[in-house]
DNA sequence: CCGCTATAGTTGCGGCTTCAACCAACTGCC
DNA sequence: GGCAGTTGGTTGAAGCCGCAACTATAGCGG
């Protein structure tokens, strides 16, 4: 036990192998997410964050969700959701309505136009996720990656926040 | 063979399990990268992209790299590198000098102040990568993730365009 | 019922990124 | 040697995001 003691300020640096792996993940995921976003913008005039919000709304009863609920589902700040929903509203894809049960609350509701746009964009998006990501992974790898980041997210939401 | 035929415009949707895994990865990596960025800004007044550039320069001979080389190493657009290096230059962490062997070229060079800042920030950054990511993963998982995204990146740089 | 604190959401500003347009220098080819 | 196309890099505008400050409502204890 004695030799493994570390003070809080010591840093466990990465060895060469870990460096390579970390940078591969960083570079690969960066390139991947950028590409998804570009495709969506070019073909459907939607950003990834905008698309994600439309997806969550489309799955909710009445196509409606509280702002805070949207925020927590897509893992974005409340402020960001406000900004993004405002843009979507300006584009006519989403509507805001005040929440009956809570005077502070605001509901975001998908419009028909929003649903139409989402249906189109989904082809591009899912196609990209498959081509760029899943088609380069085995089933097992994909499973491992999903499970791993589930833990990462749980950890950050738990003690992290 | 007959029943598996697909036209180019058909979309292979994700089943429920794939959806869950994909969203876990998306949400987890989003939360993770956001946290890394926040930590760096709060404690060292550096963004992740800025930090990444400092790292690459610090590893180059003469602490110097061509702009395009920086861009390709960190997987960012040239324009983005121009902007980010300009900010770093304004902060005195990097200097620009014109490239002797190619009249179009511009070298970015780390300054002593830049190296000092990088040394401080590295503790925060690596600590975050370990705590938020690696400590939640087994060795095998980390290896798999690194290798997988190496392929993803290669694929995007290759046939991508 | 009052006041205190916590929560929901918005706002404005400043910083970061993208895109398209642009200039300049290199390359190859006739 | 000069023109055509390519590559390296920058620029400015517009969009996107984070942060801190703010308003308003909810909930709770006295």
From TrEMBL, chains A, B:
InterPro entries in alphabetical order: HTH_MarR-typ (IPR000835), MarR/SlyA-like (IPR039422), WH-like_DNA-bd_sf (IPR036388), WH_DNA-bd_sf (IPR036390)
GO MF terms, alphabetically ordered: DNA-binding transcription factor activity
GO term, biological process aspect, one: response to stress
All copies of domain HTH marR-type, residue ranges: 18-154
A Pfam family: MarR
Protein name: MarR family transcriptional regulator
Lineage: Bacteria, Bacillati, Actinomycetota, Actinomycetes, Propionibacteriales
């Amino acid at each position: 036990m004695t030799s493994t003691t570390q003070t809080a300020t010591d840093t466990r640096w990465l060895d060469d192998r870990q460096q390579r792996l970390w940078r591969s993940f960083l570079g690969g995921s960066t390139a991947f997410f950028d590409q998804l976003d570009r495709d969506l913008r070019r073909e459907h005039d939607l950003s990834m964050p905008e698309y994600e919000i439309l997806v969550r709304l489309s799955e909710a009863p009445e196509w409606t969700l509280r702002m805070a609920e949207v925020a927590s589902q897509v893992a974005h700040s409340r402020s960001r959701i406000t900004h993004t929903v405002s843009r979507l509203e300006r584009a006519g894809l989403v509507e805001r309505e005040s929440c009956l049960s809570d005077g502070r609350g605001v509901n975001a509701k998908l419009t028909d136009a929003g649903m139409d746009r989402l249906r189109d964009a989904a082809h591009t998006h899912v196609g990209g996720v498959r081509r760029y990501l899943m088609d380069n992974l085995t089933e097992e790898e994909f499973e491992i990656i999903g499970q791993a980041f589930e833990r990462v997210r749980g950890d950050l939401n738990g003690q992290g926040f």
